[in-house]
Write the structure tokens for this entry.
Amino acid sequence: MTEWGVVGVLIALAGFAATVVTPLIRLNTTMTRLAVLVEELSDKLAALEREASAVRAGLSGHETRLAILEMGGRTNGVVRPEH
């Protein structure tokens, strides 16, 4: 193989490496961004679930008070003292 043949092979290898490496770098960058976004979404979902749980607990308390009021202030036949 002549010197120019070796140079041609090296240029071809460099071109192939650039063709393969560039998309791999972009793919890696995109996957890193997606991992960060998934982590953020997971944290936000957990916060929303905690908030929804608190709202449900408050709503349950309100429904209990309404049920007592509808029964005329009686629970199990016993009249509750007014505050």
In short: The chain has one domain: 10-73. Residues 3-70 form the longest helix (68 residues).
